[in-house]
Amino acid sequence: MSSFIMPSSKKFLLIIAGPTSSGKTSLSIKLAQLLNGVVINADSAQVYRELRILTNRPSPLEESQVSHRLFGVLSAAKRGSVVWWRNKAVSEIDAALNAGQMPILCGGSGMYINTLIRGIARVPSIRDTVIEEAAHHYQKIGCERFKNELLALDPILGSKLKSGDSQRLQRAWAVAVSTGKPLSYWQAQPPIELRKDLIFCRVLLFPPRDVLFKSVKIRYQKMIEKGAIDEVKGLIKLGINNSLPAMRIIGVPQLINYIEAKTKLPAAIESSVTATQQYIKRQRTWFTNKFQYEIKSEKEFSASKCEQICEKIVYWLFTQ
């Protein structure tokens, strides 16, 4: 396919979404080449600089082919969040549109995509020290007692969240302690919304589950061959707190166990594969129930399928 110039009077945002291993990166790069686009990361793990291999970030060669944004921009020693990402993504979308380029959001983190499209609560920024205090307090007193404390601080959210939902429990506790108002209060306020002139073209890549499961097994073996173990060793050398998001990325705890001789490599790989497959199940459920799309592909991704999807997207854009 030849490259296209979109009508300047219309502002499109392409969103390429789907579970892990569904072909999002390849499709996004192809579209960026066709549409003078910029690929903007919407994967919560791929923001971390030190974990290119284990998060399956675009390779240096892929990144050289088209403009990429928000990939590998945050130190693993920092705490990434949906609020931080959304602010950055909005800036990158505006910058692409102002430069006459097509912003192409690419990722499988449903919460990130959802907050960008639907808006986000106007919660004041929370200091890292309070977030760390929440994590430490949760570990110290246990999930049940922690949830009981949250029920006193935020009865609405405290009654909705499950005891094992540690991240959301800690977030709600930190907001209540830091702001003096429960997170449920902030969530009830009018959200911060995306610019009104955007036209969404949401594309869902949704290959069969067994295809994705098989792909994940192959992918992890390739990750090991490419140097994933050394990547995690480098992470260990940084002395990063285990409560930070980068340390919980699938594959990191498993390979740390192998490096520390707590398990064999095949077991570490199998554990990573299983965890990823479980994550894919959750992604598929989320995209099935909560993601509205204009275009959907349910076939196994391939070069020929990529061309077909691109043709559908270009036709859709030019008929709006």
TrEMBL record:
Residues binding substrate: T20, S21, S22, G23, K24, T25
Region (Interaction with substrate tRNA): 43-46, 167-171
Pfam families per record: IPPT
UniProt keyword 4Fe-4S present: no
Keywords per UniProt: ATP-binding, Magnesium, Nucleotide-binding, Transferase, tRNA processing
Enzyme class, UniProt record, top EC level: transferase
GO biological process, alphabetically ordered: tRNA modification
Site residues by UniProt (Interaction with substrate tRNA): S109, R127
InterPro entries, alphabetized: Dimethylallyltransferase, IPT, P-loop_NTPase
One annotated GO molecular function: ATP binding
Catalysed transformations (reactions): adenosine(37) in tRNA + dimethylallyl diphosphate = N(6)-dimethylallyladenosine(37) in tRNA + diphosphate
EC numbers on record: 2.5.1.75
Cofactor(s), by name: Mg(2+)
Binding site for ATP: G18, P19, T20, S21, S22, G23, K24, T25
UniProt subunit comment: Monomer.
Function as written in the Swiss-Prot or TrEMBL entry: Catalyzes the transfer of a dimethylallyl group onto the adenine at position 37 in tRNAs that read codons beginning with uridine, leading to the formation of N6-(dimethylallyl)adenosine (i(6)A).
Family matches, as HAMAP family: IPP_trans (MF_00185)
Family from the record: Belongs to the IPP transferase family.
Name of the protein this chain belongs to: tRNA dimethylallyltransferase
Taxonomic source organism: Candidatus Endolissoclinum faulkneri L5
